From TrEMBL:
Region (Disordered): 585-608
UniProt key word tRNA-binding: no
Official protein name in the record: Glycoside hydrolase family 2 protein
Annotated Glycoside hydrolase family 2 catalytic domain residues: 268-395
Species of origin: Friedmanniomyces simplex
Amino acid sequence: MQLGSLWSTDVNESGLSGIQGTNALYSWFATTFDVPSSFTNDRVLLNFGAVDYEATVFVNGQNATFHRGGYFAFTVDITDYLHVSDTNELLVFVHDPTDSDSYVIPIGKQTLHPSHIFYTPCSGIWQSVWIESAPSNYITDLYIAGTADGQVNATVSSSGNSTSQVKVEVVDRNSSTSIATHTGTVNSPFTFSVPSVSPWSPDSPTLYNITVSLGDDEVGSYTGFRTVSRGIINGVQRPLLNGEFIFPFGTLDQGFWPDGIYTPPNREAMVYDLQTLKKVGFNMLRKHIKVETALFYQACDELGLLVFQDMPALRPLQTETFDNCSVATILPDDDQQAEFARQLDLLIVQQRPFTSIFSWIIYNEGWGQITSYYPEFGLTDRVKQLDPTRLVDSTTGWYDHGAGDYSDNHHYANPQCGSPFYSIQSSPYDPTRIGIQGEFGGIGNNVSIDHLWNVQAAIDTINQTYEIDTTLEAWNYRGHRLLGELLDQVAIWSCSGGIWTQTTDVEGEVNGLMTYDRRILRPDVAQWQADISDLYSAAASRTNASTALPSFSGYSVLSPTPYPSEYPESTPSWSPNGFEYSATPPAPFTSTTSETSGASPSAYSTSSSSTFSACVGHVSERIQYASRECVECVCADYISEW
């Protein structure tokens, strides 16, 4: 529903916000709303998908709650602050200390000074905000973990301390037939079994609907039945899905957008990226030091894409200079490390219901990783305690001291996966853990300015990309050769997975499968499908004792496919004209009337008043554990005015 207007300046850096401010250390967001007459239950809940970084929420002038952490959802009961029969005022005060003083916070790749692999920051409310009606004792959290053989571990939490009975019903999505019903005690874990389930996998992403009832409250959700583990196959540690060796191969997926930065223009845009990965042949993605909206993970569940989920990094690669002119890397103190651990808990607890998440990643390339002792061991134990159903990649790249389930190598020029050779920065392969290539590839391809992030600081750092090819023929040939090298390491050594950098270009990085505007898809899809299929075949062949080099098409010298003089452009169904947003200059992409005529009016319109941060996803889509029939969305559409 429409909620008035935003009265703030310099709060959001994105084009979609209508503001494009910078250095938003402090911001105020304001709106008004009425409580719908349909809200006949006892309590009214206010939900935030994510606010970066600290949020203090006021309802009708009263302090309702405070939340810290830019990637995580929070809910506050605002019933006692409301004017039920009158208009209500909602204020949100945001403190976002990006790059500020001594603040060492989970920040990912945001920086006030974007350059090459670090990007424009995102301040304020960047995910959905909505209100909902609930009874006095309502469901606050639902965790259901189903295994491939139909065993279910469940915990249903409520707002009260009751020990009431809660009913869980499992429903077949195709037939709408109830296949299992179980009654347990709220606020306590319980188990039950579901007969004859179809296990979830990338090739068969079967999901089952869930209905949970507690007194007058009912929540709709879903789950998939799958088992993640590790095991030794012919002497090699392997990742297992449903008891079988799976070779996870995907892209580094950063989730940045030219018009919304952290916020995609709509759900279709997110799904387009994921469908493109599936089309090229990938079965996985690594969500790189960002946490997405629930709709993103729901799409991965439905499409069958495994997710390696990063914890957002602490002030990566930043230094401080002391009075004696010495320079040191900024690392967390004890309190900041404790806050990192607390937010890691939030990541696990909030995202663990999603079936597609296969592994948790704690540290990336030593960013924010204390070296005077090894905190990753304790953090790994904590993650395993919160979620024993998944694997943990404690340190992806570089500072690996033996924690977790993976021996993870980063090397762009040549993969070094599960092999006896490694670069100085990396550690040697540890055969007691799973060998994986956590990052490689990163081949660049410069394009015309029409498809680049047209900001000078980004343009100036394009040449820092690891390797830049000037034609798509060369780009695809280099990709073919690197995939062939990885194929050797799968067939001969102990490589068990890989992650190619990356899904899309991001600002000054031009090494994506797609350009930043998603207009150009670089891969020769048939070639990449064949090369990736060879990786899967090589991995499957290693389930027997033979280590002979198989004869795969990937070992032949591929003749590059010639491209026309013009770059081939993809046509995303959700936005055939790309991301042009001329209404809020100086947006990076300019447009003409003819270019934008096909864009969605609801996604790209503007008015004289500023627009609130994009609202990602209709809450009424009943996603995961936060949906009820009586939900009312504060943002009427994916992009709504405040």
